[in-house]
Design goal:
The chain is α/β, with parallel strands linked by helices. The chain is built from 24 helices and nine strands. It has four domains: 215 residues, Vaccinia Virus protein VP39 (Rossmann fold, 3-Layer(aba) Sandwich), CATH 3.40.50.150; 150 residues, DNA Methylase, Chain A, domain 2 (Alpha-Beta Complex), CATH 3.90.120; 110 residues, Orthogonal Bundle (Endonuclease Iii, domain 2), CATH 1.10.1670; 89 residues. The protein is globular, with a radius of gyration of 28 Å.
Length: 618
């Protein structure tokens, strides 16, 4: 009774293997005999991605995971081989490659877990590697690298990777940019996008990173959005539980709408009137009262004080009641531990296993092995099958298409764009060298003295002619230089003197933070120093750079989702490698000086020939 309710333990659900599965000895013969395009699902979990692939027209001949319950689920729902392999180890990869040797593959798909990189600057990481105090091969990168290694070895016709948005947006997009570069080097034409799952028939707010790559065929075309589905569409036909926690088998009535009818289509004849796994957790009496008081827009802090068991300053969204006519909040693995984020829209309880599965777009015949918590965890970790089906269908159409002979490969076009940007930067650098890589002191002086990126009045040039190194920036000499230029320049010069005093300790001082505080940099200025001056290979996001990218592609990324789609677009243009800091600087300066908001000088832009929004002479 420690939880305020009587705990109800249910026996773990044991599932038989799929009736159409071949024996291990016959699997290779079975796989080679498949008429449908053959797919492999790595890091498969219980099979949300696999289900979407098969609904799109692929046959998943093999799946890999390292979780016993998920593998039992996959073996029950799919005929293909489900292997327990650790793909972070060379032995696990070797075993997989050996089994697939000689089998022609149409698709390698998966969602490799991606642990965050260190928050230390990548320049600092490089210095630690050079000093021998850090291993150059960060083990946290192993799983996505394993995925790419398998692709490089098996060379399927297409690649599909799904992951959380953090893989795209975290760590200056380092993982995504390197991944796309490796796929290009392997002969693929990759594309990446942050996709809203609700646009593809999933009744929840859920954003995912999708990377799609085609080796041969037409360029990948992203699928069109489908009809929006809400919570009522997904679960409105499931039986009410009233004061119970449900049961493993319950009768349900007639379906209402296309979503509900499709959810039931593959129930076998003996179970057509039965819904499986419509079970939830017991609810405390006081929580039941609180749930009855809530509407979809009620916050936890709105509840009466005697019904709140958690601090409202930390847990303001501790409880969330779903709305019948709205999208659900994203179903995640957290639901296995706490269902209070998913309160039923019509009853004072949390969602059942089947309701969570429906909102993830799993059909009713799909069962989940293990305990109730195991089922919730597998559902929350899964790729929504409807999203996977939509993207995989578009990918299959691209593979079967024929690329126009006259159309340049996207990767070749990007290389040409980078070449032109670097040539422009080389010509511009002698006039504004303090904005380009090579000397962090010059970049620091420029961003402090000029006040905003890309605009130079000659003050920085004059200062650096007098004080070309931080060792030269002594207090008295700088004060004498700044005094005739007015109080604003005096104040900014004093910030530089304070920073220079701290930087005289040596090159390593650039990786300390004290000088940043002394220079009183804004976030944008610090990014410029870090990404250009210190030559980190991140993505420098400015209004001008986003505007240039938007005009170039004919999109609105500078106005909508600039922190996500805009950064991804800039990252795609930048690529990876030693040229990234120079490319960063060139894009920022072009946006500030040439591709201006009101009077763009397109004739002076190196990208005008390929720019969708360029003003061309008539």
């Amino acid at each position: 009774m420690a939880y305020g309710v009587e705990l109800q333990r249910r026996p773990a659900l044991l599932l038989d293997p799929h009736p159409g599965a071949p024996t291990p000895e016959r699997w290779r013969e079975w796989a080679l005999g498949q008429k449908l395009p053959r797919a492999v699902d790595l890091f498969s979990g219980g099979g949300g991605l696999s289900l979407g692939l098969e609904r799109a027209g692929y046959k998943v001949i093999l799946a890999v995971d390292h979780d016993a319950r998920s593998l039992a689920t996959h073996r029950h729902n799919f005929a293909g081989l489900a292997l327990d392999l650790d793909l972070s180890s060379p032995a696990g990869i070797a075993d997989l490659l050996r089994r697939l040797d000689g089998i022609d593959l149409d698709l390698v798909a998966g969602g490799p877990p991606c642990q965050p990189f260190s928050r230390a600057g990548r320049s600092k990481i490089r210095s630690l590697v050079e000093d021998g105090t850090r291993d150059a091969n960060d083990s946290r990168r192993a799983l996505w690298r394993s995925f790419i290694q398998v692709v490089e070895q098996l060379r399927p016709r297409a690649v599909l990777l799904e992951n959380v948005p953090d893989m795209a947006l975290g760590d200056d997009l380092a993982v995504l940019r390197e991944m796309l570069d490796l796929l290009e080097r392997a002969g693929y034409e990759p594309d990446a996008r942050l996709v809203e799952a609700w646009r593809h028939g999933v009744p929840q707010h859920r954003q995912r990173l999708i990377v799609a790559a085609v080796r041969d065929g037409a360029p990948f075309q992203w699928p069109q959005a489908s009809r929006r589905v809400n919570v009522r569409d997904a679960i409105g036909d499931l039986p009410r539980l009233r004061d119970t926690t449900g049961d493993a088998e319950l009768p349900y009535g007639r379906p209402d709408g296309a979503f509900q009818r499709r959810a039931r289509t593959e129930m076998d004849n003996g179970h057509r009137g039965i819904v499986w796994d419509h079970v939830t957790r017991p609810v405390r009496a006081d929580d039941r009262v609180a749930f009855n008081l809530m509407r979809p827009d009620t916050r936890y802090s709105d509840l009466p004080a005697h019904l709140r068991r958690y601090r409202t300053d930390i847990f303001d969204d501790k409880y969330k009641r779903l709305g019948w006519d709205e999208l659900s909040r994203s179903i995640t693995a957290h639901i296995a531990k706490d269902g209070y984020w998913y309160i039923h829209p019509g009853e004072p309880r949390t969602l059942t296993v089947r309701e969570a599965a429906r909102i993830q777009t799993f059909p009713d015949h799909f069962r989940f092995a293990g305990s109730r918590s195991d089922a919730f965890r597998q559902i929350g970790n899964a790729v929504p099958p409807a999203l996977a089906e939509s993207v995989a269908g578009a990918l299959l159409r691209s593979v079967r298409g024929i690329a126009p002979a006259a159309r340049r490969r996207r990767s070749e076009r990007l290389k040409d764009i980078r070449t032109r940007l670097l040539a422009w930067a080389k010509a511009d650098a002698p006039m504004r060298r303090w904005w380009y890589p090579g000397d962090p002191w010059r970049v620091l002086a420029a961003v402090v003295l000029e006040g905003r990126l890309g605009i130079d009045s000659g003050v920085a040039a004059d200062f650096l002619a007098r004080f070309p190194d931080e060792a030269d920036a002594k207090e008295r000499a700088v004060a004498e230089w700044a005094r005739p230029l007015g109080p604003r320049t005096v104040a900014r010069a004093e910030r530089l003197v304070r920073a220079a005093t701290l930087l005289r300790a040596g090159a390593e001082a650039w990786f300390e933070s004290d000088w940043e505080d002394a220079a009183a940099l804004t976030d944008a200025q610090m990014e410029m120093v870090r990404l250009v001056g210190l030559q980190d290979d991140g993505v420098l996001l400015t209004a001008g750079a986003l505007r240039l990218a938007a005009r170039f592609t004919g999109t609105q990324v500078h106005r909508k989702r600039s922190r996500s789609d805009g950064r991804m677009l800039l990252a795609r243009i930048l690529g990876v490698g030693a040229d990234v800091p120079s490319l960063n600087a060139a894009i920022v300066l072009l946006g500030a000086t040439t591709c201006t908001a009101t009077s763009p000088r397109c004739s002076q832009c190196p990208l005008a020939a390929d720019c969708a929004g360029a003003r061309r002479p008539r």
